[in-house]
Fold this sequence. Notes:
The protein is an alpha/beta fold. It has helices at 12-38, 68-77, 88-93, 95-103, 123-141, 157-165, 185-193, 208-223, 231-235, and strands at residues 54-61, 83-86, 107-110, 147-148, 169-170, 175-176, 200-204, 227-229.
Amino acid sequence: MLKIYYIKYPKKTTIILILILIIAIILLGMLINHSISTFKTNDPIYKGDANSKKIAFACNVAWGNEYIPKMLEIFKSNNIRITFFFEGQWAEKNPEIVKQIAKDGHEIASHGYTHVKYTQWSKDKYSEDISKAGDVLFKITGKKPNLFAPPYGDFNDDVVKTAEDLGYKVILWSLDTIDWSNPGVNNIIDRVVKKAHNGAIVLMHPTKGTVEALPTMIKELESKGYEITNVSNVLK
């Protein structure tokens, strides 16, 4: 007599449990990978706390000083304190300006001693350059900086690790005015205001275009509810 065999399929609840288990395993793998990426060392900082409605202005100073007084006047009249990243050589030539900026309550940070691309230098050479800039700023202000912006935004893992080993957080940016290229006041404003986001770090320089753009930029950012501050404050 022909026997008929029936295939027993798993119950619906069993299938659901298996699917849940598979999804959980996939999510766990994604979480582990995310954690590894998040806590990876030798990564520079591009922006701050995404949950806080703050924006940091980061001004790199390696040339020129004619527009700095007006910048300081604008910041003072708007009760704003930002971060100035000074090249060591520039600071040595303009110590009184650095002192005034520190006196006004702005954050003093390092832009290296020499404005070169560190990835084209040996580790020993750029390590010495970073240390020398810190010594110069300490001598002028009495305080060693703990933030470092690599010249030209040029870096690799060794540059970042070297700076971190010397006690610095390596800072880049999430918004760039590109003011050094003279793009025009409206373009500078648009590049910042239209792309503004929580924790943004805005790169700027002491240029004519930036000085002319600042009043409108500040007004529009504050009208959107942003607090304009220094880099350390957006990292908290």
